[in-house]
Amino acid sequence: MRTRLLLVVSVAFLAAGCGSGSHGTVITITTTAPVSPKPMAVTIFAVEQGLLQPKLVHVPRSPAIAGAALGALGIAAPVTISGGTATVDLAKATNDQVAEIVYTLTHFPSVQRVDVAGRMGLTRDDFAAYVPPIFVETPVTGAEVAHTFQVSGTASVFEATLVVQLVRDGKVLSKQTVTASEGAPGRGSFAATFTATPGALTVVAFSPSAADGTPQHEVDIPVTVTP
Is 177 helix (H, G, I), strand (E, B) or coil? Predict the structure, then answer.
């Protein structure tokens, strides 16, 4: 975006011998000045209390979006992507940091594996211990979503069954029982599509107890549905 900046320069020219009868001349110069582009919204995955949590952050707009995403994790390292592999130029990293890097970079469709800190071909499967039983990857907390949107992620729950619902002001607006592609002890993917009116609401996902249906491993994600 560029915004127009109006500069008005008044220059008075006094003709020799004209005295007080001379007139000032106003010169109007119109030019443009660059404005910094809006930041990009990206999803990162940070380890909190031993588990990965997706977060929505805003970073300066840049073609090097993968490196910007790692920068939001506090990791300053160049990233190159080729043939589905992201190579991170980082000599050392803790296991927590490597888990964050792998999950964050593989969120991009062009990345299937990561080479970092001397470890090659890492995938999400290498960090299963960092993932909670129900892991909603989209949407993330604080996201703005369209009136029709998808809730997706992975789960490791009994009989691959979980419930996803939309809650606003304590009232359940919509509810779906969803079957993941694999049940516990394995981990399967799931997705559900919802439609809601504009405004704030919470996406709630849980596994119903086999005994009485009470929520297990509940995840709450506040979002805003845009007009």
Answer: strand
pTM: 0.78
Q: How far apart are CA 42 and CA 40, in angstroms?
A: 6
Q: Are 8 and 26 in contact (CB under 8 A)?
A: yes
pLDDT at 204 over 70: yes
Q: What are the chain's domains?
A: 2-34 (no CATH), 40-130 (no CATH), 134-225 (2.60.40.10)
Cα separation, 114 vs 105, in Å, equals 8
Q: Mean pLDDT lowest for which of 2-16, 118-132, 212-226?
A: 2-16
Give the residue from 82, 76, 130 showing the smallest Cα distance to 102: 130
Neighbouring CB atoms inside 10 A of 88's CB total 23
What distances in angstroms separate CA 37 from CA 34, 57, 67, one per listed residue? 9, 16, 18
